[in-house]
Structure formats: structure tokens, C-alpha cells
Design goal:
By secondary structure, this protein is of the alpha/beta class. It has helices spanning about 15-20, 30-45, 70-75, 80-90, 120-135, 175-180, 195-215, and strands at about 25, 45-50, 95-100, 115, 140-145, 150-160, 220-230, 235. An 8-stranded mixed sheet has the order 3-2-1-4-5-6-7-8, sandwiched between helices. The protein is globular, with a radius of gyration of 18 Å.
Length: about 260
């Protein structure tokens, strides 16, 4: 292990090699995604698949890591900011970036071991989880919102092939999918601030590092934590028991379909 990473040697003797060989994907490089990209580059991740079709605007400057005031004037793509953060720390990084929605070109995500979902809708999360199961990748979801009161809420969820999904843990339901669809997919200008994104993103990065290195010796195939901005807590939700076997994604249907010769 090089001197650069000696202070994270507790992750294991071969941890840095494992981190460098892991391919991570990002759907969304905004408030939460920009935090995860930055931390991943600091940790030594070198293989990225990035998606974002947006540019830096004035309203992004309160939370978009790496963005500067001049990026508003320049209409800098968020994808460019992510590239610069990664290459500034990992000049030899392998970056496949796409200035589009991931749905418009999902095939590159097939190579990923871990996919981070930093999207705003339940439908988008559901589609990303479905894709992750198909590609046999771990899916880590983060998100936050401000509700009446006001109260800041958010979540970080790990969904792994073969384990409980986001429906199993009660985060995605037919009710919230239908309610969202009735709004014609317009999520509007949701309130966003930098510190909840940072808390949720840091937790997501911690989950990813554990998946790659196994340093905590945890073998969990799922994790669900709820963020309360008033109490400044990130805890397990109060809920009914989570099934050990997912009933929404049949184990035989995981992975890409294979055509068998008759």
C-alpha cells in the first residue's frame, strides 16, 4: 500500500487494490452525487461510469460540490465538474461519462459493481433498482427532501441482488408510485441544502467501501437508514420485519437473459 493510503490501511491489506479495481456508476451528479464522486476519488476509486445531462445554475451553488460562481456564467456541465474532481485526485482514472439520462444509454452500467442512485423520483429509483438486479450490481440509493414544519428527511438504502429490495423495506410502494405519476412526473423545485446531502452521501460511500473491502465483516445484503434533519440522526426506521428473501425479484430471474441453444 502506498504512503498516500496508509491512513486507511485498517480497511485491509488488499483493500486499495480492491477499491481501484471496482467500477462504480452514478445516475445523477447533483447535490448528493457530487459529494459521492468527491469522496470516492479521495478514497482511490479509479473506474467510473457517470450520467448527468444538466448544467450548473445559480440555484446549484448552495450544494453542488466543486461548482464555482463562474460555472454559472459558463453553463458548465455537471459532468465536467465531476470529471475534474476525479482527475484532480486520480489523473489515471478511467471515466466513461455521458451527458444524458442513464435511461437513454443504460448499457455502460452493465460493467459496474456498484451503482449510486441520486435521482429525485420513486419511478427513477425503481427503474435503477431493476437495472441493478438485472446487471447483478449493488444499488445504493440516497435522497432528501424538506417537508412541512419544516422538517428535513432523507434516506440511504442498500439493495443487493438476492436480498430485500426497496419494496421489501417499505420505501417504494404502489401508493407513492401512483401519487407521483398523478403529478405527471413533475417534481418541481424541491428544497435542497448541502449538509443533509453530505451526511447521506458519506453514509453511502461507507456502505460501498464495506462492500468492496469487507472491513466490518458484515454480510448484509440490504440496509435502510432514515435521516431526520431536526434531530440530526440517521437511524433504522420503525417498521414491520423485513423478509429475508425478496418476493419482488425472483432469484432465478437475476442477471441478463441468456439464449440457450436447443
Amino acid at each position: 500500500m502506498t504512503e498516500r493510503y496508509q491512513r486507511q490501511s485498517f480497511l485491509g491489506m488488499d483493500s486499495q487494490e480492491a477499491i481501484e479495481n471496482t467500477i462504480i456508476g452514478f445516475a445523477g451528479l447533483g447535490g448528493g452525487g457530487s459529494h459521492i464522486v468527491q469522496q470516492s476519488a479521495h478514497l482511490g476509486f479509479k473506474n467510473y461510469v457517470l450520467y448527468d445531462d444538466d448544467i450548473v445554475t445559480e440555484t446549484n451553488l448552495n450544494r453542488l460540490i466543486g461548482a464555482r460562481a463562474l460555472d454559472v456564467t459558463a453553463s458548465t456541465p455537471k459532468l465536467h465538474l465531476a470529471r475534474m474532481m476525479i482527475l484532480g485526485l486520480q489523473p489515471d482514472a478511467n471515466i466513461n461519462g455521458f451527458a444524458c439520462r442513464w435511461q437513454d444509454n443504460p448499457h455502460p452500467l452493465r460493467s459496474c459493481h456498484i451503482i449510486f442512485g441520486c435521482v429525485e423520483t420513486y419511478r427513477g429509483r425503481l427503474e435503477l433498482e431493476q437495472l441493478s438486479r438485472r446487471y447483478l450490481a449493488h444499488y445504493i440509493d440516497i435522497g432528501m427532501d424538506v417537508h412541512g414544519g419544516p422538517t428535513i428527511g432523507g434516506q440511504v438504502i442498500l439493495s443487493s441482488p438476492g436480498g430485500p429490495c426497496m419494496r421489501c423495506v417499505g420505501f417504494i410502494t404502489d401508493e407513492n408510485i401512483t401519487k407521483e405519476a398523478n403529478k405527471y412526473g413533475d417534481v418541481g423545485g424541491r428544497p435542497q441544502v448541502v449538509w443533509p446531502n453530505g451526511i447521506l452521501a458519506s453514509s453511502a460511500v461507507g456502505i460501498a467501501v464495506d462492500l468492496v473491502t469487507g472491513w466490518t465483516k458484515s454480510s448484509s445484503t440490504h440496509l435502510y437508514r432514515v435521516y431526520d434533519g431536526r434531530q440530526n440522526t440517521l437511524e433504522k426506521p420503525v417498521q414491520t420485519p423485513i423478509p429475508k428473501i425478496c418476493s419482488h425479484y425472483d432469484i432465478e430471474s437475476l442477471g441478463d437473459p441468456i439464449l440457450e441453444k436447443l
